Amino acid sequence: MLKAHQQYQKDEYLTSVKKAGDFIINSQIKAPQAGWPQQYDRDMNPGWARRFEPPGACSAVTANTIGMLAELYLYTRDEKYLKPIPAAIKWLESSRLEENLWARIYELKTNKPLYGQHDRRIHYLASGGRTDYRFQGDFGIKETIAYCREVMRLKLQYKEEPLSPTDRAAKVDNMMKSVQRAIALLTDQGYWLDRETGMINLEDYVDNMNLFCEHLELTQNKK
Predict the structure, then answer these.
(1) Which of 50-64, 76-90, 97-111, 168-182 is predicted least confidently?
(2) ω into residue 32 within 30 of 0, thus cis?
(3) How far apart are CA 119 and CA 222, in angstroms?
(4) Which single residue of 65, 74, 158, 182 could bond 208 by disulfide (Cβ 3.0 to 4.6 Å)?
(5) What pTM was computed for the model?
(6) Residues pairing with 154 in the sheet
């Protein structure tokens, strides 16, 4: 919606963005677990999704959400979008398992890491969870916290400046190297395998597809 409003300047797109922002603010879990869950029940409480996804505060979703709030502030200049961020950062930093490692889901109230299985039971040990699901990871949290703090510190002005021909050529060249690496790692069946686990990682798939789309956008839009 932000991109749509930026491109077409239609009021309804900005209205949609603001409604989404208000939902994000209102759906934040109360401190000290001031994050966001992966899913909600009908009463807007953290709820079950798949049988191995219990209700809880989700570190990965929280990082993505505060990043979105920072973008909303930069675009709208409305400081209400910054207000939920400090409490969320405080919870993320207090929930770190070790350096740059978080559990995906934390139990409500106790803040214990949760690891799901198809038996729909609660497991507190990483060995009790599915091995084909990222119940632990860095989830880009460290980088997102740094970005949000920089936005709050500087209160940067959102403005997407057009690239000069020289800068565009350099960006395309650097991006092409990443595109070529991604293509080289693509299997004959059309997917990417995680180097550590040897399993399909959908996050890698999404990242690589976004890379391809951004490269196409840069190379096809000559303005």
Answers:
(1) 168-182
(2) yes
(3) 54
(4) 182
(5) 0.70
(6) none
Q: What is the DSSP string of 160-191?
A: -PPPPHHHHHHHHHHHHHHHHHHHHH--TTS-
Tens of pLDDT, residue by residue over 1-43, are 988 998 888 999 999 999 999 999 999 999 999 999 999 999 9
Which residue bears the tokens 């879990």? 29
How far apart, in Å, are the Cα atoms of 154 and each of 130, 148, 162?
42, 10, 22
Reported as type and span, the H/E element at residue 83 is none
Distance of CA 180 to the CA centre of its chain: 25
Q: What is the rounded radius of gyration, in angstroms, for the C-alpha atoms of the chain?
A: 20
One DSSP character per residue, 26-61 reads HTPPPTTS-SB-S-B-TTSSB---STT--SSEEHHH
Average pLDDT, the chain: 87
What is the model's pLDDT at position 112?
Answer: 96
Distances (CA, A) of 135 to 126, 174, 201: 8, 33, 13
**What is the rounded CA–CA span in Å between residue 148 and residue 65?**
11
User: Which pLDDT tens digit goes with each residue over 124-159?
Assistant: 877 655 666 788 999 999 999 999 999 999 876 554
CB 212 within 8 A of CB 182: yes
